[in-house]
């Protein structure tokens, strides 16, 4: 006999939300697609907000800013997004409709599911930063978690990757988007099955909008897995059904958390220093680390090395498979006199003896040397922050006649102009000290800022190449042009 599925009660939802929210944050975002999952989340949040106002009054009450995503994939999605916005306004939420924009042919091209996910998160992150909303509620639930774990099993993921989605995490897919690191996503419904969300909407007469593409098993891989997992009667063995997959994700998450905590405790014994001017990182293990860390597993030691490498690497994430050579050499350093310099994780690893290491960015490949990052300048204002080489955030403010600046890596061919300009500006001594700091191994891994075209100051400038006017070596504070301001921040 089938049992009746109960809707989520307000006390239940409050308990889920209180696991994430301590009451100190007064502004939450809410991501809404218009489907049953996000509309149930919106309704529950609305009822929670009503109760808060009744208990504590309107002063200093939690504010909700809803972001309605219009994927623009099917006819009528724009009208549906507008209808959802009206419903949410009735809940007392601030609302913004965020349409996703696609290039011609992009909807039919392969890999659309992955691109749509990235576009959705990046659009949400930009809206959150613009509206100063740094905690964003998402409606992911247990069925979504099971789908994620199944997809990763099929892809051959290691056990640590089977943790799936976290209840609290940084917003994904936003590398290179300034301010996105401040945005966290909260998933209060991650332990709840989809059937309870449907029951919640049905019981409370909450309207939702069905996206028929979600029911097409041929449309995306996730759709195919969703149909397989939701089949009745079940078509999969119990070990691969929803509850079992969710259990796997919890076990993997507990293991990952335990490893990270243990790696953090190891790092307390290490000396780590990073130069924001050059990007060089120095670290050393304690002399007695073999005995001090005798109980630490290989997974914990590997996590320690990954955490250190990610501080300086141009890559947003360093994978364990990239670090196998590092692991062997770092933890055998006391057994050999010399270790040749090697590259891994986007870095050059140099052993200095006595358990001391130096990490520098690995040399640029030839094709990367000419790649430029464009900084578009708004008149009388700063350009947007841009992440250069995955390491430095840079923005500039220029004279009115300069509309764009560019950033690329300093190259050997630039040095004649750099030295000539230093002599001309009377900063030859400063340049000499900086070049000592920028030893040859890292000199040609730092950025140079320039603009194209001579503008109104043509007679005073020396060109790097045809049309390239040298502006600065920003990370080391060496300036070659007056009336240009810049700000530089190392990642992290």
From TrEMBL:
It comes from the Eukaryota. The keyword ATP-binding applies. Gene3D superfamilies: HUPs (3.40.50.620). Transmembrane segments: none annotated. It catalyses: cytidine(34) in tRNA(Ile2) + L-lysine + ATP = lysidine(34) in tRNA(Ile2) + AMP + diphosphate + H(+). Its EC number is 6.3.4.19. Residues 29-227 form the tRNA(Ile)-lysidine/2-thiocytidine synthase N-terminal domain. Keywords: ATP-binding, Ligase, Nucleotide-binding, tRNA processing. InterPro entries: Rossmann-like_a/b/a_fold, TilS/TtcA_N, tRNA_Ile_lys_synt, tRNA_Ile_lys_synt_N. It holds the Pfam family ATP_bind_3. HAMAP family: tRNA_Ile_lys_synt (MF_01161). This is tRNA(Ile)-lysidine synthetase. It comes from Discina gigas.
